[in-house]
């Protein structure tokens, strides 16, 4: 078992290929995330960014290439409590009512597995809810929440296992401005505490100051890997440097839509 | 006053009814949570072949139905894993094949008759034997053990399967366990409510409970309370009035759903109003072009 201080990358994807039906979605993607790094995976719809992230945690089978988490090949990786995963969702609700606390507590199962939760486990769940600023609503049904609050619940669920790496698939999709700020603050605290983060984003937005490195995918290939570009997505690609009416870092904040 | 407790067949029927009232919503809540509310219906159809086999081989139909229903539920779960494309067609084959096979087998057997068939399809209290009660008690104990003992794990898997896989939980095993437990519940409930109405008792008490609950825990407890209440009330009613127990129980459950839904509407409105007072009201000046009477409320 590797010690936390070992130098191997937290996430290492080498030459990854994957297909969806007959269509190639990943065509040889290399993606490395080192300890303490915050890496954003960018790209247009269908560029393979979601598939890349889901293959890292074994939710998409690769047709070629290798995945390693904390230096262990994915096939043999068992320490899931070290990984906090936020899937791409618009809702945290299921077919039956559940409170915020009940949903967040399920994130602790990577540590408790089949045993009963103890005091430390309950405290970790409370802390995770507090981190996303929902303590006063912990006993409310998730059905009563807004889109941004749903994302906060999903992130709290990932934080409940006190993970070393956070893997998030579009955590900002459909999130209002107030929740974006809270999510950015939560993430900043995690990063300050030494967490490693890999997240899929549509645009850098409120998270821009946190990002160490951006990887841009197009048609299942890495097009860019380096410091976060000024403008993102299609416009970040080489040879695409025209001036925008407004910079991506300055979204029009009328407050009307938030 | 409690003379319905005297005849031994009623004692057996009431034991079976209570166990059905507890187990059906207890596993049903996970099916509803996974949005597979009709799964129990499918298993009920498949169990019919088991009943038919039981008659043909002159063994206890409850155990045979359990065996076949469990096998059917495992096949359904496998179809869900692998057969993405034509999964629904495969399930339809399984359901209707199971039902047709059961009818055929019962007619081929010496002991089975159409009366027997009807009692399994719609439930019949007077035919619950000592042997059936033993089987029902053993099977119900298994269902309670799984649904209560593994509630945290089953909640996580039914709430968000993909997330559950990334927590390292044995998701496939847990999914199989839900399917098998649902199959066992179907055969527990078969004698009282009948195979065609089993699914109703898995779904309707849960649907009724969630009208007024905010948490999974309360929904679970309330669904079991409602389930037990309607199965007991339905069984006793069918003792005094000559009405089929299964239909009575299901109609009572639906009545509970209607009543709770009617109660929930003002409750939800009051909650919303409470939240509205806490929340910030509009503070922006409304442009002059807007008529003054147009009161903006959130």
From TrEMBL, chain A:
* Domain ABC transporter span(s) in chain numbering: 11-244
Region called Disordered, residue ranges: 233-258
GO molecular function of the protein, one example? ATP binding
Q: Which residues form the signal peptide?
A: none
Q: Which keywords are on file for this protein? A: ATP-binding, Nucleotide-binding, Transport
Q: Name one Pfam family in it.
A: ABC_tran
| Name of the protein this chain belongs to | Metal ABC transporter ATP-binding protein
Species the sequence originates in: Streptomyces atroolivaceus
């Amino acid at each position: 078992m590797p010690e936390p201080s070992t130098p191997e990358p937290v996430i290492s994807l080498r030459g990854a290929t994957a297909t969806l039906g007959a269509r190639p979605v990943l065509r040889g993607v290399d993606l490395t995330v080192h300890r303490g790094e915050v890496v954003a995976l960018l790209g247009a719809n269908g560029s393979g960014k979601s598939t890349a992230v889901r293959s890292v945690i074994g939710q998409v089978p690769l047709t070629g290439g290798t995945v390693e988490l904390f230096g262990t090949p994915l096939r043999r990786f068992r320490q899931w409590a070290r990984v906090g995963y936020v899937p791409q969702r618009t809702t945290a609700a299921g077919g039956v009512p559940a409170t915020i606390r009940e949903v967040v507590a399920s994130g602790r199962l990577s540590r408790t597995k089949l045993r009963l939760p103890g005091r430390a486990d309950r405290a970790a769940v409370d802390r995770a809810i507090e981190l996303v600023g929902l303590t006063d609503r912990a006993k409310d049904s998730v059905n009563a929440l807004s889109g941004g609050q749903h994302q906060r619940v999903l992130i709290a669920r990932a934080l409940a296992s006190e993970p070393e790496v956070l893997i998030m698939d579009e955590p900002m999709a459909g999130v209002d401005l107030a929740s974006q700020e809270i999510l950015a603050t939560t993430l900043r605290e995690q990063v300050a505490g030494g967490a490693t983060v890999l997240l899929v984003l549509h645009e850098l937005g409120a998270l821009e100051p946190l990002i160490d490195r951006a990887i841009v995918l197009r048609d299942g290939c890495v097009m860019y890997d380096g410091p976060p570009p000024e403008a993102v997505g299609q416009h970040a690609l080489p040879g695409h440097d025209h001036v925008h009416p407004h910079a991506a870092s300055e979204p029009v904040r009328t407050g009307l839509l938030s | 006053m409690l003379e319905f407790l005297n005849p031994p067949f009623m004692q057996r029927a009431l034991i079976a009814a209570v166990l059905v009232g507890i187990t059906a919503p207890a596993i049903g809540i996970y099916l509803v949570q996974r949005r597979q509310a009709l799964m129990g219906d499918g298993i009920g159809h498949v169990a019919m072949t088991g009943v038919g086999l039981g008659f043909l081989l002159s063994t206890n139909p409850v155990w045979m139905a359990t065996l076949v229903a469990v096998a059917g539920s495992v096949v359904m779960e496998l179809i869900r894993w692998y057969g993405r494309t034509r999964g629904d067609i495969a399930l339809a084959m399984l359901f209707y094949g199971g039902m047709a096979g059961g009818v055929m087998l019962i007619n081929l057997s010496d002991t089975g008759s159409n009366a027997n068939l009807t009692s399994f399809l719609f439930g019949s209290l007077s035919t619950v034997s000592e042997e059936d009660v033993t089987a029902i008690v053993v099977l119900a104990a298994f269902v309670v053990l799984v649904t209560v003992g593994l509630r945290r794990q089953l909640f996580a898997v039914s709430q968000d399967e993909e997330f559950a896989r990334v927590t390292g939980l044995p998701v496939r095993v847990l999914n199989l366990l839900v399917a098998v437990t649902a199959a066992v519940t179907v055969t527990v409930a078969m004698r009282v409510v009948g195979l065609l109405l089993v699914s109703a008792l898995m779904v309707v008490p849960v649907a009724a409970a969630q009208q007024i609950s905010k948490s999974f825990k309360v929904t679970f407890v309330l669904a079991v309370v409602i389930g037990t209440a309607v199965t007991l009330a339905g069984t006793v009613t069918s003792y005094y009035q000559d009405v089929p127990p299964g239909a009575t129980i299901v109609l009572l459950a639906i009545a509970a759903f209607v009543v709770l839904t009617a109660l929930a509407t003002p409750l939800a409105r009051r909650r919303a109003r409470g939240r509205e007072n806490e929340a910030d009201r509009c503070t922006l000046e409304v442009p002059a072009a807007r008529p003054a009477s147009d009161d903006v409320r959130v």
